[in-house]
Automatic annotation (TrEMBL), chains A, B:
One term of GO molecular function: heme binding
Signal sequence segment: 1-19
Classification via PROSITE patterns: CYTC (PS51007)
UniProt cofactor note: Binds 2 heme groups.
Keywords from the named record: Electron transport, Heme, Iron, Metal-binding, Oxidoreductase, Periplasm, Peroxidase, Signal, Transport
Name of the protein in its database record: Cytochrome-c peroxidase
Organism of this sequence: Denitrificimonas caeni
Pfam family, one: Cytochrom_C
Domain Cytochrome c: 39-147, 191-305
Chain ranges passing through the membrane: none
Post-translational modifications reported in the UniProt record: Binds 2 heme groups per subunit.
Subcellular location: Periplasm
GO cellular component, one term: periplasmic space
Binding site for heme c 2: 205, 208-209, 280
Length: 334, 334
């Protein structure tokens, strides 16, 4: 099916030739975010950066999905509450709105459902939804923002996660060199990147990494031709379904901004993109690429780095006398 | 001396009357930052936000001096490498360029000298200067920036701390309502704030909290009329000099943005500004203020919240294959 559609696209391309404003390819450009409710996005941005949604008062969404670093923490596994080691690599939040579901195993249907997870996860923010909502409800500027955006006097976790999700939807990265090339600017990417993209299609990477996010739209088994050897105990989708056929099925990660989201794979075991490309070709496609091919493919992957979301560091409204205090150290626990 | 100068100012004020563009007071407005080397400031900003200056790859200057939260962490004592509890409350970096010296005990002469401390402090970023410099030297964009700004191919800790300090010098907060009032806009602050300011001068707070930073320009004993009771073992300046006369002498903190820099005092023991005002009046001046006075003084202190530094979240250049990897968990240590 993949081969067919590539063929069909090739034909239509040669017809359209230079007149076409946009190439027909298995990868489509990222569309810029359309903001319909700026106040909601602004509120979500504050919440994303607010460490008071954690028990310690120290960890925010941005701690593990650092928007200065491609929306990830660039660690093999995350540091959570009390310096606990997380179970799995932190995926980027960039373009996560394009995912068919959230988390490596897809256990959250959408961004709003996802956002409730980390706040109450004892390994991550270590808090509870009630306590987090209690903190927000004690801060008049937050109360006012929720009133303005949701027309309600009572904040619940639903508005909190909705606002965060709405902010996350703005975290798309359009206008990558590769997108400029897709849109007809032949000089936007190097000859190496072009050769790498050709190879990316030819060897079959696009079977799993396609669409605007170059991934994010299917679950696939990691290790089709060779087993993926790892210490990490994650089972993938099988952890949810209990079905042995789902063992080691993970959501195919987006390759958008993959230059920034090292280390790679669900266990964060590979730091270099070249290594990740080599692993993929061998394990998923039974192909051993040579050094030049790997280098070309890496050049292509780097052309997927788009415009990073740019906005002013958000200002957080101060706590009040009524705000429950953070509990950074256990000995201070109630 | 204080009384004399206040008197002198009062006289000159009544002469200048409404013609004066700026009132003569023991507190002067904050001047906006003058940026002479924008590239250096930009580099310093990246370094301030870069967690790769820490052993774990997780903690940046901004972790403990969060510019979304008044340049502090709003915790009694900071969370450092491996979730270690810091020894003392984290002061704001806002307006810290106005301090006569850095740290509660003044042990660093200036911002550049200060900036070397946390990187190599095992309780804070847990790294070494050599390793931090090694990380930067492995990242071509950083190498280029240091080349552009310092005209050198060899990064040393001196350029790193110089750039950070240059960024910190831009973290001033001009145009607070109180400054607008000082500059002649009578409506910029409330009647309560005006009454609070009058009281602030009358009872003698300005003896220690004066100048543009409303503090930061002298070391003073904490607990003059009554002892300050605390579990915190910090000795203040005596920790440096060994002189018993210096026991419990701390740098007088700036009261600029004090609304944002809770909890208060070197041990972070007081969360509410009203309580801090009460403690100060009793311990430093032997005065018991009534509720209305405290409320007025707090209204004045809140009028010292200035324009917070506003800039886009900095983008950090990605690590390379040559970049030493972070060591977030000890079991991964070399
Ligand atoms: C302590 C680290 C940590 C914190 C804090 C954290 N996350 Fe995550 N995040 C992770 C990890 C690890 C995963 C992957 C978990 C999994 O797939 O099982 C993840 C997954 C996600 C995903 C799914 C991305 C994808 O492609 O599947 C989104 C979206 C996300 N986080 C957003 C958030 C938001 C919003 C917050 C704050 C409310 C937050 N995260 C807080 C570490 C963290
Ligand atoms: C059969 C499906 C499939 C094919 C074909 C495939 N991939 Fe993947 N890719 C995945 C899955 C699943 C993962 C996540 C695996 C994991 O983390 O354990 C992944 C992960 C990656 C990653 C790491 C992304 C990250 O952020 O961690 C890169 C890079 C990558 N693939 C590139 C490629 C390249 C290049 C090819 C072709 C040579 C390719 N993939 C072929 C399914 C596939
Ligand atoms: C783990 C928490 C933590 C980190 C990380 C941290 N600081 Fe600090 N900072 C503190 C604490 C606590 C103090 C007060 C220490 C003292 O006075 O003994 C302080 C003091 C300061 C001061 C002095 C302010 C004053 O008024 O005296 C400045 C300036 C400063 N830090 C800047 C930085 C910079 C720049 C970095 C990064 C290179 C940094 N800090 C990293 C916690 C931290
Ligand atoms: C004799 C000197 C002196 C006088 C007078 C004085 N202060 Fe202070 N002030 C200090 C010192 C020193 C500290 C830091 C003490 C510590 O942290 O242990 C401080 C701290 C504070 C703080 C907490 C700031 C922070 O960020 O932690 C506030 C608020 C404050 N003073 C307000 C006042 C008010 C209001 C008055 C008058 C009622 C006053 N001060 C009078 C020396 C003084
Ligand atoms: Ca990763
Ligand atoms: Ca100097
Ligand atoms: Ca404080
Ligand atoms: Mg929904």
């Amino acid at each position: 099916m993949l081969k067919l559609s590539v063929l069909a696209l090739t034909v239509s391309m040669s017809v359209a030739a230079f007149a076409a404003p946009q190439k027909n390819e298995p990868i489509q450009p990222i569309e810029p975010a359309v903001v319909t409710d700026a106040a909601k996005v602004e509120l979500g941005k504050q919440l994303f950066f607010d460490p008071r949604l954690s028990k310690s008062g120290f960890i925010s969404c941005n701690s593990c999905h650092n928007l200065s670093m491609g929306g990830s923490d660039n660690l093999p596994s995350s540091i959570g509450h009390n310096w606990q080691e997380g179970p799995i690599n932190s995926p980027t939040v960039l373009n996560s709105s394009l995912n068919l579901a959230q988390f490596w195993d897809g256990r959250a249907a959408d961004l709003q459902e996802q956002a409730g997870g980390p706040i109450a996860n004892p390994m991550e923010m270590g808090f509870t939804h009630d306590l987090a909502v209690g903190v927000l409800a004690s801060i008049p500027q937050y109360v006012q923002s929720f009133q303005d955006v949701y027309n309600t006097d009572t904040i619940t976790i639903n508005e909190v996660t909705d606002a965060i999700a709405e902010f996350e939807k703005t975290l798309v990265t359009p206008n990558a060199p590769f997108d400029q090339w897709l849109q007809g600017n032949d000089d936007a990417i190097s000859a190496d990147a072009k050769a790498g993209y050709k190879l990316f299609k030819e060897v079959g990477c696009t079977a799993c990494h396609n669409g605007p996010a170059v991934g994010g739209n299917s679950f696939q088994k990691m290790g089709l031709f060779e087993e993926y050897v790892t210490d990490n105990p994650a089972e993938g989708v099988a952890g949810l379904t209990g079905d042995d056929l789902d063992r080691f099925k993970f959501k195919v990660p987006t390759l958008r901004n993959v230059e920034l989201t090292y280390p790679y794979f669900h266990d964060g075991a590979y730091w270099n993109l070249e290594e990740a490309v080599d692993v993929m070709a061998r394990l998923q496609l039974g192909r051993k690429l040579d050094e030049e091919q790997i280098s070309q493919m890496t050049a292509f992957l780097k052309s997927l780095t788009g415009e990073q979301p740019s906005f002013a560091v958000p200002m957080l409204p101060p706590s009040t006398a009524a705000t429950p205090r953070p509990v950074p150290f256990e000995k201070l626990a109630e």
